[in-house]
């Protein structure tokens, strides 16, 4: 178990670090024009972050103890396919949810 003082030190340090990272962009650079090369790279931040968040939940789901789960893999593939075909985020997500729950029901 972590000591209460040590826990608060970690929380405060993480808060300061998080604030410093955000302040670097909003406080120090907020009123200046960013270079074109940086803006071009920042455009792809969400595209890079979203798969990094989703991939572990699909490949090593905590719900199954980190074991491979066919319904989750199939739902991810259907969601990706629907997103590419329809170009509609909400439709792709709903299709993925329907696939996940349908396969979980059928395979259990």
- Relative helix content: over 70%
How many DSSP-defined strands? Answer: 0
Shape: flat
Helices and strands, in order, run as HHHHH
- Mean pLDDT across the residues is 89
Radius of gyration: 20 Å
For the largest beta-sheet, the strand count, sense and barrel status come to: none
Low-confidence stretches: none
First-last Cα distance: 38 Å
Strand content: under 5%
| Class inferred from helices and paired strands | mainly alpha
The total of helices stands at 5
Short description:
By secondary structure, the protein is mainly α. The protein has five helices and no strands.
Topology:
Layout: H1 4-26, H2 36-42, H3 45-59, H4 70-86, H5 89-107
Supply database-style keywords:
mainly alpha, flat
Describe the structure.
By secondary structure, the protein is an all-alpha fold. It has a domain at 54-107. The protein has helices at 4-26, 36-42, 45-59, 70-86, 89-107. Helix 4 runs antiparallel to helix 5. The longest helix is centred in the first third of the chain and has 23 residues, at 4-26. The chain starts with a helix and ends with a helix. The relative contact order is 0.06. The model has no long low-confidence stretch (mean pLDDT 89).
């Amino acid at each position: 178990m972590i000591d209460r003082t040590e826990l608060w030190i970690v929380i405060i340090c993480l808060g300061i670090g998080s604030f410093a990272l955000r302040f670097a962009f909003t406080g120090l650079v907020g009123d200046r024009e960013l270079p074109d090369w940086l803006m071009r790279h920042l455009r792809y931040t969400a595209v890079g972050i979203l798969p990094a968040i989703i991939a572990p939940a699909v490949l090593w789901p905590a719900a199954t103890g980190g074991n491979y789960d066919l319904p989750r893999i199939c739902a991810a593939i259907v969601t990706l396919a629907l997103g590419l075909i329809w170009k509609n985020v909400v439709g792709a997500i709903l299709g993925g949810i329907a696939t996940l729950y349908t396969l979980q029901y059928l395979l259990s």
